[in-house]
Write a structure and sequence with these properties.
Elements (H helix, E strand, L loop, with lengths): L1 H23 L6 H23 L24 E7 L3 E3 L4 E7 L5 E10 L8 E8 L4 E8 L7 E12 L1
Antiparallel strand pairs: 1-7, 2-7, 3-6, 4-7, 5-6
Amino acid sequence: MFRKIKIFLGALFVILILILFSTKTQAAGPWDDVWLAITEIRDQIINLQSQITNIQLIPGPTGPTGPQGIQGPAGSTISYYQVFSNVRTVAPGTSGYVQAFCNSGDTVIGGGYDVSPPTGGDHMMELYTNIPFGVGAWAVAGINSGLNTNSQNLSTFAVCAHYY
């Protein structure tokens, strides 16, 4: 609604300006009163546009409280546990992959891995996967890119949730 008023007032202002320029070039005389009236109307339009721009909507009073809703269903109980994979020995220059599986019907919510001996120095296990695998497992994969001939052990664990 305010937009329509702004458009209307803007169009009215343009029309009045056109009248102004077509009449002001004539000699002084009876048109001076018209010029004064146009100037007053223009000032009123500018004032109205300013008021419209600065209108702040004030919210009404808060309505009455509604009726109590029905009781929702009981929530579920959750228990958490960890499962561990078997250890995979990864020879230098080869890849290894391990998974830890939650019990059937349970959900994996996190996981991680272990490398032994620890990575560093000549021992280097580069992981390229450390993610949930489906709904109920955690998977880890990596390559032993160490500079020596030592194998490294790779294992993973999954944190699982059981909903009752």
